[in-house]
């Protein structure tokens, strides 16, 4: 996934780089580097974006993100 594709996926999902960084437990600067194409988008981030795009439960999380609610910490039982 290129930086451009990554940015498009975030936009399509309606989530910010900051929200995704919080959800993944990485720094916002790192996510910005993926979005700019400075470093490759890791497979786990692509997988998370794909799951968010295809998961009904994730749509509720995304809706909360749009309202400004912080990304939830996920336990293994929620995954």
Number of strands: 0
Biggest β-sheet strands, sense, barrel? none
Q: Write down the overall geometry.
A: globular
Estimate the helix proportion, in percent. 55-70%
Mean pLDDT across every amino acid position: 82
**Domain unit count:** 1
Rg, Å, rounded: 12 Å
State the low-pLDDT regions, or none: 75-79
3D structure, described in words:
This protein has helices spanning 3-13, 17-24, 28-36, 43-54, 56-66. The protein has 79 residues and is mainly α. Helix 2 (17-24) packs across helix 3 (28-36) and helix 4 crosses helix 5 (56-66). The longest helix has 12 residues, at 43-54.
Short description:
This protein has helices spanning 3-13, 17-24, 28-36, 43-54, 56-66. With 79 residues, the protein is an all-alpha fold. It has one domain.
What topology does this entry show?
Blueprint: H1 3-13, H2 17-24, H3 28-36, H4 43-54, H5 56-66
List key phrases describing it.
79 residues; mainly alpha; 5 helices; 65% helix; globular
């Amino acid at each position: 996934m290129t930086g451009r594709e990554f940015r498009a996926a975030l936009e399509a999902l309606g989530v910010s780089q900051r929200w995704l960084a919080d959800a993944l437990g990485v720094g916002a600067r790192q996510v910005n580097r993926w979005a700019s194409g400075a470093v490759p988008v890791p497979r786990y981030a692509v997988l998370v974006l794909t799951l968010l795009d295809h998961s009904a439960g994730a749509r509720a999380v995304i809706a909360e993100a749009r309202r400004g609610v912080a990304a939830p910490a996920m336990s293994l039982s929620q995954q």
